[in-house]
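Researcher: Please translate sequence to structure tokens.
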Amino acid sequence: MRLEQELANFRAEFERTAPSGRAELYSAKVEELRRQFPLKAVIAVGDDAPDFTLPSTRQRQVSLTSVLHAGPAIVTFYRGGWCPYCNIQLRAYQRALPEIAGLGGQILAISPQLPDGSLSVSEKNALEFDVLSDVGNGVGRSFGLVYALPEELREALRLNNKALPGINGDESWELPVPATFVIGQDRRVALAHVDVDYRRRLPPEDIIATLRSLPAPIARRAATSML
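Model: Translation complete:
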């Protein structure tokens, strides 16, 4: 099943079973954020992606620079393992990983949750790509993605036992807008998908199409030239 259909199916089921007024609240807050969020401040196609180094669930530090030495990077910001839409997206990217890796791409999934939460996401979804913890949202902020949840959504998350201070380790109640970037080895952003509606995500097919449009990874070209 395609990612878009999985997300639509989950949303329909949530709206059918959610407590009275909850789905309407979430939709209203999405539209409020759409009016307020400064999309022009977000890293865009043609921009140089900011470098970063973050801890991975694989017990190592991962930098964008080191990834780009090997090939293009797919940097996807998600809200956290508590978000079902995020888990659906990450599982779809895992299914597409063989084709993405075959084109030289590496996926880096970033959220502000504490490392234990990132490890849980990786294990629960059987992810074979790096899941990174951006505690404090420093990297998300450098991409222009961070916003603070309004009080109505904070209360809804408290009622669901998903209060962000315990998940993210700070009192900011800040999240990144879900976003995915394909970054070439020259550090230029080749594809940027940013949507304040967390219920919509970039299909893996669009990532694959963008990777195919990029030059072959430098390391691969060098190996081919030696044959």
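Researcher: Any highlights?
Model: The chain has a mean pLDDT of 95.
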